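Worked example 2:
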Amino acid sequence: MPRNLAFIIEDDPQLSIIFSQAIKAAGFEIQRITDGDKAIIELEKGTPALVILDLHLPGVDGNHILEFIRSQEHLNDTRIIVTTADARKAEELHEAADIVFVKPIRYSQLKDMAERLKPE
């Protein structure tokens, strides 16, 4: 598995593309995942360096995925950027996620933050 792999877990096709382009520009290889059930399967077998995580997903929701990541030893070094349209929920997640962005998110904002989180 590539050292600079990022999972983009987002069900909105347009946002998924924009997020993927920003993260790719930051130097990551991308795997796009559009639902929570598939995300759990991929996280069980993979070790991404970065996860961009939407909270409102079909299947397993983003909160459960966040808890799952934090409970897995093989994902201890995985950095997480949560994206949500709910500002109140964003406040609640600051301790569990590395970064929480309230949508809308600018391309440059996401790219710059991903560059900072990139493994050396």
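The two ends are 16 Å apart (CA to CA). The longest strand covers residues 79-84.
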